């Protein structure tokens, strides 16, 4: 449960908070709100002061039906931000949210130390070599199709079994390539109906084979706000509820828009475990 982020050892036996920082104009929740470097660094300072352990920088919205973004534009959106954060806050652990190998390389060169890939290298043939070469922790997420097609009537006979089979196949390939630190993300909201999401969430303990840390990213997603007939902007309460359940089911990283609320959830969880 310890990962090596460019020489810094991060112990995931103590769950961590990953703050989402979108540099896109069309994110489903906060698109367009962090476009200038000044605003971005202000948000970084806020996240770090609220207790974020990792910052996840993304330049390509992967919401259902998201528009295509060129590789160069994605690099231009992410690499300068990562470099600026690394310069101002050199102790910060930065993850790059991308499915493109060249973007991952540029991000790591700029200061990122984790690759967060929604595609399991299915969308870019250059990603696998980047993962192998860069020797940083890799977040492997489950998704079918592309961000543009993933919600077109997804089907499973047994969603938990099929996600685990996907992980097993990919993990074998990563281990063969000598990738040491692998984190698994079930991909809630990616190629899954409301029912699939909750079935998978309810059986989350079965994921990862007890060997790999789990990242859970359900922050303000449709599995919350559609269930309660609400909106992303009104889904913080449901997010906190599911984050607590995720921790109880063994999640080691919570990927969130609301760092302060997630940190409080983690503090309460730790108190329930006798850790104050």
Describe the structure.
The protein has 9 helices and 10 strands. The two termini are 21 Å apart. The strands form 2 sheets. An 8-stranded parallel β-sheet has the order 8-7-6-5-4-3-10-9. Strands 1-2 form a two-stranded antiparallel sheet. The chain is α/β, with parallel strands linked by helices and 276 residues long. Strand 5 (93-97), helix 3 and strand 6 form a beta-alpha-beta unit. The longest helix is centred in the first third of the chain and has 18 residues, at 71-88. Helix 2 (71-88) runs parallel beside helix 3 and helix 8 (236-248) runs parallel beside helix 9. The mean pLDDT is 92. It is globular.
